[in-house]
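Technical annex B. To support the medicinal chemistry partners, we prepared a structural model of the target in complex with octanoyl-coenzyme A, based solely on the information shown next.
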Amino acid sequence: MEEQIIICETLENGVSLITLNRPKVRNALNAELREKMASIFIQLNDDPQTKAIVLTGGDKVFAAGADINDFLTAKTVDIYLRRSEQYWDAINNCRKPIIAAVNGYALGGGCELAMHADIIVAGKSAKFGQPEIKIGLMPGAGGTQRLFRVLGKHKAMKLILTGDMISADAADQMGLVSEVVEDEATIKRTIEIAEQLAGYAPIALEQIKEVANLGVDMPLDAALALERKAFQVLFDTEDQKEGAKAFLEKRDANYKGQ
Ligand code: CO8
C-alpha cells in the first residue's frame, strides 16, 4: 500500500493530530504535501469535533523546508503560478488553536510552518533555522517577518543572514518556542496541552487567537478596542454563562461551543 505523506487522526477529547510523513526527505514540503496539509486545515477548521490541532513531523524531524527539487528549474512565473500563499493562508486562517510538536530539524519553510502554530513545544533535539541563504535564496513564507516580530531585529537578522541553526534551548531563551521537553515526551506533552485547550469554550479560544494575532500589528488603542469588543461579544455566548455558573457551583464546566 502506498504510504501517505500526511496523516490526520482524530484523537479523543476534541484533538486532531496531523503528522507530516516524508521521513526519507526529512519531511520536505513539496507541492503535494502543502496542498494536502492545506485541505486538512480547511476541513478541521469547519469540523465541530475538532477543538484543537496538533501538528508534528513525528519523533525524528519536523520539516527540512521546501522541497529543493521543486526549485531546480523553476522560473519566476512557475513559482508565481504555484500560488503557495493559499496553502499558508489555510493554516493562518484556522480559527482553532494549533500546537506544533517539533523534534529534530525545523528549517526554512519548516521553521516558518512551526511559526504558524500558536504554541510550539520543542524536543531537546529540535533545531530551528532559516538556511535559505545557503542555497542562494531567502525565506519566502514569513521567515523575515515573523522571526523579526518574535525575536527582535538583531537575533532575527543573525538567523536569517547566517542561515545557522539554533538549538531548542536557544530558541526557548529567545522566545521562539513555548517550552522544551525531552524528545520522547514532545508529542505526548503537545497533545496534553491540546486536550487542555479542547476543554475550554471554543468561541473564547477563537476570539483570543483572532484578537492576539490581529492586534499585534495594530496601534495599541485600536488593538485594545478590538479586545474590548471581543470580550463583550463573549457575553452573548451560552458558554460564558456556563463558565461563570460552573465556577460558582464548584463543578467542571460543560461547554457546547455556543
Ligand atoms: N528538499 C529536498 N530534499 C531534502 C531536503 C529538502 N529541503 N532536506 C533533506 N532532503 C533530502 C536529502 O537530499 C537526502 O536525500 P537522499 O537520501 O536522496 O540523499 C535526504 O533528505 C536526507 O537528507 P540528509 O542526508 O542531508 O540528512 P541529514 O540528517 O544529514 O541532514 C538536514 C538533514 C540538515 C535537514 C539537511 O538535509 C539539509 O540541510 N536540508 C536542507 C535544508 C534547507 O536548506 N531548507 C531550506 C529549503 S528552502 C525553503 O524552505 C524556502 C521556503 C520558502 C517557502 C516555503 C515553501 C514550503
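Notes passed to the chemistry partners:
The two ends are 42 Å apart (CA to CA).
Residues 25-26, 28-29, 34, 64-69, 84, 105, 107-109, 131-132, 135, 137, 140-141 surround octanoyl-coenzyme A (CB under 6 Å).
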